[in-house]
Amino acid sequence: MSVLDILTIPDKRLKHKSSDVRDFDEKLEKIVADMFDTLYASGNGIGLAAPQIGISKRIVVIDLKEEGKQNQIVLINPKIISTSDENSINQEGCLSIPGYYADVERSNEVRVEWSDVNGKKIKKKCSGLLSICIQHEIDHLDGILFIDYLSNLKRKRAFEKVKKYQKIQNEKIE
Ligand code: ZN
Q1: Which sequence spans correspond to the domains of the chain?
Q2: Rounded to 5 degrees, what are φ and ψ at 69?
Q3: How do residues 82-120 score in pLDDT, each as one tens digit?
Q4: How far is CA 92 from the centre of its chain?
Q5: Catalytic residue among 66, 109, 137, 171
Q6: Distance from residue 145's CA to the centre of ligand 1 (Å)
Q7: Catalytic annotation on 113?
């Protein structure tokens, strides 16, 4: 198992549309394990999509760590079947946009279909933080980032914040 580098904006690979997973094999299990390692190493992340580690496949891992306990959710080829009419606005961040947070409007509830790591199909109605997280991560699989929903001015600010954040991180290493 290993911790992988997380791509940050403006890396073009974050804007690619990912392709479906077809083989539910050991290679997939390894990618999923590495993604959880990478997610936990980030310290504050609750979800990670494969394109964020440079793999253009429809794989998402989530752990909301409710009540401080690990609760791993693996979504292979996830698809939103339906969304609730009610929306809410919540502050979002992203491991690929470190140091920047902004309000995003999303559906309160989503019905989602996906396969687990063994290829077993799962269908579930998700609400609350899980609903927001799933919508954010599925967007990654389609090359969409949460800053794409913001004004040009705010998006520009996000790029500046990330640059500044990385500069501070580099100085810490030196
Ligand atoms: Zn993200």
Answers
A1: 12-173
A2: -100, 145
A3: 999 999 999 999 999 999 999 999 999 999 999 999 999
A4: 11
A5: 137
A6: 7
A7: no
